Amino acid sequence: MWLTTIVIIIIVINATAAIITVFRQPRDIAATWAWLLVLLLLPVIGFILYWFFGRKLATNKLNSLATQQRLGIDQMVASQQEAVTVSQESGAASPFAGAPELVRTLLQADGALITTMNRVRLLFNRQDFTKALFADLRTATHHIHIEAYTIEPDGVGKALVQLLTQKAEQGVRVRVIYDTFGSHLLNHAFWRPLVQAGGQVEPFLETRLGRANLRINFRNHRKITVIDGQVAYMGGFDIGSTSRKLAITRDTQLRLTGQAVASLQARFFMDWNTTAKIKKVHFQKAYFPDPADNGRTTMQIVAGGPEQKLEAIKLGDLRLLALAKRRIWVQSPFFVPDDSLLDALILAAHSGIDVRLMVPVHTNQPMMAKATEFYLNQLVKAGVKVYRYQAGFLHSKAIIVDSQYLMTGSPNLDLRSFKLNFEIAAFIYDRTLAEMVERQFKLDMQQTTLYTYTMVKNQSPMSRVGADLARLFAPIL
Known about the structure:
Radius of gyration: 23 Å
CATH class of the largest domain: Alpha Beta
Helix content: 40-55%
Structural class: alpha/beta
Shape: globular
Number of strands: 17
Strand order of the largest sheet: 4-3-2-5-6-7-1-8-16-14-13-9-11-12-17
């Protein structure tokens, strides 16, 4: 009798603690139910998992991120919004890349300025990216700003620090932001030569525990490099690689010159001033030089993060998909969408649009891969062509619409990228670039197998149950 009473008391205490823990901070309903399920079914263990995965950022940090000065950008955003409105109301041919609805959505959701006369080089291979990046770093004369998720202490990572140290000794201002989870193999000794040479290195939103940050969520997944305010890189490639993970040789990276570089520079400034305890940076003309207007690409740089009231990148993706008349081709390492994105793709397929999704067979996150399987099954049943990439870990993030519009950058098509991580994406209005990514998609198809409805029906019951269970935890993966 007394044992039953003790068990009931423990269950009541655990349930009460679970409810208080989950509801003490606002979160969407799917994540709320997922965490309640974990905490109720896994006493003690569930709270340990919550400590690592479920805790939200402190309110003061979120407020700091949300209220950073926009370096004069807010006024420019308002002007562009007014210009788009006037263009639509007048019925004139839109000067805003032919997609005023998408442009306006991104202006409203993130203040993403539309920039023109950019020159963009696409890099699909890691060696090409590394070679181009180091060549540009060697030319730096004023500053180098790097924001990275993962920098590996391999030959490439060590060569990077050596080069940055040389530049700092030459008087170049070097600033690096890195994520302590993605770059967990680094230590203070790795950065010591650069710091001693005058470079500045900051872990993103470091906690009181320093580099031993136990929070798995709210990682800085952005990959940005700005050199002398003239050249910038963004995309999916990290710096270096490690033999302990699946090798990533295929991704999509952008090398930019033109007006868009200032947007990436402003983003770096905001992130630096949020995370740096001292030595904050302020607007100076040298950081925002007049661009060489010799390109022809129109684009918007969009940031996503948990401090946003609107999920800017997801809203942009949804509006981009709505533009489609003929085709939607998508690549993503993981595919764990919310209902709105899943429904948008299924609706497009039912409308007769050629919808294709490519994901890798092999990834470094088995749980995410299993959850992806559940959603792939839904797409296949709806008539979406799903391709499983066989030649390694496909890490490319891209949406191509009608061979005319392109989205690429750091975010995967999953809930983590839309809600939990800090991401950066480029929405590009350029037929030539869209067609180049489309051609690469076709080349990648040669390394894939088509995932068919017959394969779905032939899955074992155990495999289906595993995918269903993984899907239950999708909101918190």
